[in-house]
Design goal:
elongated, single chain, 223 residues, alpha+beta, 2 domains, 6-stranded antiparallel sheet, 38% helix
């Protein structure tokens, strides 16, 4: 089947997109638009059916799945061929359903393909719109009474604790530690007193013995 004055998109192996016009379109001759010497292994790989702006499009991909090293096509194609490796240039051909419900070839442009491409991937997130939504989002903590929040503005719960409570806990810990020291000091003093008493008793006994010895010597001398 031939169609006159048809535009197709050449997908270069370096992921470039270029619109190319064909005076007399012939599906069997598409491999030449990709620079191949023959049509070996060059065939239709998939067709995407997508509806956009009230129109129904069918975009077909023609490519090779065999080739030499370093000639792999780096373009990210939509599913279901997103994990298939193609070689060399590829070509996209478009059909659109007419008023009679029949698909007919139409001139595919890169502008239209990029819009269809985005829809085939499920749409891309608009970062500017997302940032605007974040700015307009209401802060839930503003509705919380101040006595239920910490000094830093966080909600008091089992994970966030007010600094005042932490300070009180630290003070109690120091007080308990000081009490324990006093208690320990008291035990040491009692032991020290006990040791001194025992030492005095022992020394007292020795002194009595020495005194008694001196008296005995004196008495013996007088006699």
């Amino acid at each position: 089947m031939t169609t006159k004055n048809l535009k197709v998109i050449i997908v270069g192996k370096n992921a470039t997109l270029k619109c190319s016009a064909i005076k007399e379109f012939d599906e069997g001759e598409l491999y030449k638009k990709c620079g191949f010497k023959n049509a070996n292994n060059f065939k239709k790989q998939t067709t995407w059916d997508v509806k956009y702006d009230k129109n129904k499009y069918s975009i077909s991909l023609y490519a090779k799945t065999e080739g030499v090293a370093n000639s792999e096509n780096k373009y990210d194609f939509p599913p279901p061929v997103d994990s298939i490796l193609f070689f060399g240039d590829c070509v996209l051909v478009g059909k659109m359903k007419n008023s009679n419900g029949e698909n007919e070839y139409f001139p595919l442009t890169t502008e239209l393909w990029e819009k269809l491409y985005e829809k085939l991937f499920g749409g891309f997130e608009n970062l500017d719109a997302t940032a605007q939504e974040d700015e307009n989002e209401e802060d839930e903590l503003e509705q919380i009474p101040s006595h239920l929040k910490t000094k830093q503005g966080y909600l008091k719960d089992g994970f966030v604790v007010d600094d005042n409570l932490l300070d009180d806990d630290d003070d109690d810990g120091d007080s308990n530690y000081a009490d324990n020291d006093e208690y320990n000091d008291g035990e040491i003093d009692n032991d020290s007193v006990k040791d001194d008493k025992e030492s005095n008793d022992l020394n007292g006994g020795v002194e009595n013995i020495d005194i008694g010895s001196e008296l005995s010597e004196d008495e013996y001398s007088e006699e």
